[in-house]
Known about the structure:
Blueprint: H1 10-16, E1 24-28, H2 31-34, H3 47-52, H4 70-83, E2 88-92, H5 95-98, H6 108-123, E3 127-133, H7 139-143, H8 151-167, E4 173-178, H9 180-188, H10 200-224, E5 230-236, E6 240-242, H11 247-270, H12 275-282, H13 294-298, E7 304-308, E8 313-316, E9 334-336, H14 352-365, E10 371-375, H15 393-411, E11 416-422, E12 441-444, E13 449-452, H16 454-467
Parallel strand pairs: 1-2, 1-11, 2-3, 3-4, 4-5, 5-7, 6-8, 7-10, 10-11
Antiparallel strand pairs: 8-9, 12-13
Helix pairs in contact: 1-15, 4-6, 8-10, 9-10, 14-15, 15-16
Beta-D-fucopyranose binds next to loops.
Amino acid sequence: xxxxxxxxxxxxxxxxxxxxxxxxxxxxxxxxxxxxxxxxxxxxxxxxxxxxxxxxxxxxxxxxxxxxxxxxxxxxxxxxxxxxxxxxxxxxxxxxxxxxxxxxxxxxxxxxxxxxxxxxxxxxxxxxxxxxxxxxxxxxxxxxxxxxxxxxxxxxxxxxxxxxxxxxxxxxxxxxxxxxxxxxxxxxxxxxxxxxxxxxxxxxxxxxxxxxxxxxxxxxxxxxxxxxxxxxxxxxxxxxxxxxxxxxxxxxxxxxxxxxxxxxxxxxxxxxxxxxxxxxxxxxxxxxxxxxxxxxxxxxxxxxxxxxxxxxxxxxxxxxxxxxxxxxxxxxxxxxxxxxxxxxxxxxxxxxxxxxxxxxxxxxxxxxxxxxxxxxxxxxxxxxxxxxxxxxxxxxxxxxxxxxxxxxxxxxxxxxxxxxxxxxxxxxxxxxxxxxxxxxxxxxxxxxxxxxxxxxxxxxxxxxxxxxxxxxx
Length: 473
Ligand code: FCB
């Protein structure tokens, strides 16, 4: 087992240098992972505050109470973003801060924070790109049924409009949802994310209501807009080929692709759910709770598809003992690693080539929607050297290889317009807590000092080189 990747190569640079000067470069974060200040200025608990209190839910019993203290250090953090020469900052808005009861009036102190953040960014020439929902549902809405309940989609649309009312005069780029797959499946089926549910039926309902909330929000923002908007939704995507050429594995790969990929892109970009997925769910006695008009709402046109990519898996249709069905007659679908590949600190396989394949597939199967990589990055256990510098060569190489993979997809026809690395800062990595560091900037949690790592310098220099003489407009 190896935890390193080859260093950035001349071949990577040659591809990267073919990116156009207006290619977008930035970094991403999310509210719960960096802000802290969870009980300040009227913020109420979100499902992640609650989940962190469940014994064993988060490694080391970590929580988001302080995180990177970004709520109090925002101006300095924006100054650091500017020093890194990045043109775009993707952050998320905490619903519990802005609309503490999940419904009703705006909390002026809560929205005030994002108002100031947007102003700070614009003053430094950085494009603000808010994500309206990055997994932190107000607990009160969870108590009323959460995403498995249809009403949550309408609450989300109201909240989206309320944020847009206050920021829409200055903000052009919006992402509705981050990775509905994780909200729905990790949170409701696998139980490893908030709210910790373990029901496939709830997960399927949650997916549909997340999609519906997205579509309703897109319509509301379009009609409220005082300026042209660039509206996006971000999905976690990967490829899922069969582990072997056996019929059982090929069928498992089809199921994995239906449930993990087409379940997310088909309704948004084609206005329908995949028929094979609908058939697969019948085996579980589950129907997607579609009502009249939902699919047209969900397919409201978007301007950009946000792609988050970390790794890909292979699918097997047999369990460890060779059986192809479980005790209830349900076919086995197992995700397996490829094997023999370099691993990140989280044990995720490093597979930049699959990013190229993925982008080409989206371009082929869902033509006409420009893409931006809204997250890509790696956790490594990097530490400061004796001089205090964090020489994260493995992360730097990871980013270079993946950016080159994006550039290659572009040369082969994929319309990809930007690359936002995950993440600006080391932060609260959900159920892994603070031990897993994804930052291009190290956070020394006891002192809250920010230390840009080699990868931050690399991204700054790369963006600068690609832009050449032409500044972003
Ligand atoms: C993505 C999440 C992001 C972060 C990275 C590592 O799935 O959107 O918040 O946790 O993974």
